[in-house]
Amino acid sequence: MSLLEVKDLTVEFHTDEGIVRAVDKISFSLEEGEILGVVGESGSGKSVSSLAVMGLLPRPPAKVSGQINFQGKNLLEVSGREIRAIRGKEISMIFQDPFTSLNPYLRISTQMMEVLEVHSQMSKAEARRRCIEVLTQLGVPEPEIRFNSFPHQLSGGLKQRIMIAMSLLLQPKILIADEPTTALDVTIQAQILELLKDINKRCGTAIIMITHDLGVVAGLCDRVQVMYGGRLAEKGTYEDIFYRPHHPYTQGLLDSIPSLEIEPGARLRPIPGSPPDLSALGDFCAFAPRCPRAQDICRQKRPLQTQVEGIHGFECYFPLREMKERGHGTQGQKA
Amino acid sequence: MSAELLQVEDLKVHFPVVRGGLFKKEKKVVHAVDGVSFAMEAGKTLGLVGESGCGKSTTGRAITRLIKATAGKVSFDSQNVIEFKRSQLLAFRRTCQMVFQNPYSSLDPRMTISSILSEPLNALTNLSRKEKLERVQQLMKEVNLNPKFLNRYPHEFSGGQRQRINIARALSVYPKLIVADEPVSALDVSIQAQIINLLQDLQAKYQMAYLFIAHDLSVVKTLSHRVAVMYLGKIVELGDTRTLYGDPRHPYTQALMSAVPLHDPEKERKRKRIVLTGEIPSPINLPKGCRFHPRCPIATDRCRVEEPALKKANNGSFVACHYADENKNKII
Q1: Closest to B222 (Cβ–Cβ): which among A42, A215, A266?
Q2: Annotated domain spans of chain A
Q3: Model pLDDT for residues B153-200, shown as the tens digit of each residue
Q4: What distance in Å separates the CA atoms of residue B193 and residue B160, rounded to the nearest whole number?
Q5: Mutate which of A162, A220, A260 to disrupt the B interface (most B C-beta within 10 Å)?
Q6: Interval A215-227: pLDDT, tens
Q7: How far apart are CA B139 and CA B149, in angstroms?
Q8: pTM score, two decimals?
Q9: Do A260 and B260 touch (CB under 8 A)?
Q10: Domain B4-224 class?
Q11: Which of A187, A252, A269 sits opposite B51 (nearest CB)?
Q12: In what order do the strands lie in the sheet with A35-39?
């Protein structure tokens, strides 16, 4: 059984401009000890879907439906008390901006110890020892001094390390990392990515890595899902996504983003147009207006997830590669 | 080699900071840009890369006179931009324009696109009303926006479209140089390529030079003819793009490149990474000798005492390292 299983997750926000469907019926699972990459642009629903998993979306205004199964429970149905016991202990999260996610008025020690006070029966001395132990493991220099500092005394990279340390205090099963390196410089990003890899290997923590950077995914993740307009455009192993993409959006992303190996002066192949307006998205393919392969059906009806092989699947009527006949999914192109 | 458009010599920008209490004031100086020299060639792009706080944006702002340089010279048409009076500065603005990072805050929300684009024309040219309107419509076409949107306001446009408007504004006087400070980093990944291509097209058409300031090494590589890498207020390596990326000689350039993840999973997973330890030192208390020595994997006693000058290495790049000729390290 999977560690986490998300089925038909939908998140809607009721706004003055109408209903915004930020996440639109997505299903995925997370296995024990794996690193899952979630790639997408702003507004693709990658952050909102993980906030839903964490039970961090205020309801209302958010309307969340579907299932999020974790340890035999549907997290959407459990009480506030139960989800608070899971959040931070079993599933924890680190955020993009280490500058705003720590409270500037409180010492690191207060903020870290709070986690243990809420979730465990440790004595103050034990809690302190545990905090310093985790900080040491994460390579924070002079952990005792940092432990007693205020956030403004630390650099961005160090703050992100503290955030990671805080999320690991109780050895969670799942760590959700929402763009943890986007606000950091590349050399610091490299350090943090190494750290996450190491945590995954050493403690077996499963990681959901949310990012817009394909490079981060390339080196780190076992499986990848590409999100667009609140939907799962494509999902598969990292090899499926990078070497055998089926969805035109995945291919578009791979073609349009320059890598370090690009020839100077080369022409990029951009995806025309701009990302969709989620409040005006109809029940058709979200990528159709920008897609070079789109035909009438794409603008009329949303394609269903089609399975290629193993876990590789996509939502498209006209994939870039021929599929084997037997691999057809629930609906396929005959619709 | 093409003609030199602009020459920067030993540019310094220092910001004084006052620390301490009422009676024990301590005057200190942030060495944001600390002796930078380079030349801009007409019609070519010079990429300026580095991590946050290295002084790349400050360099761009000092050249365009948005902030005052502490010392140094920026030669343009055999005159020094740093000492320009107001009238000379206006003339200079006709040849040098800027594009900023944030497409949301760099356009006045209360002005229509038409007035945003005519503002530089009003200030810097003697065009008639009709000519201005024609120019503004022409500009919209240049950046692939529909001229019928001219009377709209910035909030009606997406980030990518706003950045096109910013570029159109910079282009309005057809300058010889555009200083672009992180023009694509606030945009969505699928939009970045559109803007990069637009910048390339406009350069080919109007032979403008770009000073392209960015932290993203891949984007800089795509656009630049030459690249300068900055660290703590100084250029540590400057060279032709192909040489700099193919044969980087400064240990910082090498570490920076090896930190950028490749987009090919197989290569990325096999790759050896030079991981820098520690953090960038404070630009207030600079390390003695070479500024990079506290984090440098190949530092020797000499580096702790003697600051290396930016000299030509045996591969043609200019490198500020005592060991530039030996320190070969294939990164990509």
Answers
A1: A266
A2: 230-260+268-335
A3: 999 898 889 999 999 999 999 999 999 999 998 888 888 999 999 999
A4: 10
A5: A260
A6: 899 989 999 999 9
A7: 12
A8: 0.87
A9: yes
A10: alpha beta
A11: A187
A12: A91-94, A174-178, A206-211, A35-39, A223-228, A231-237, A312-314, A306-309
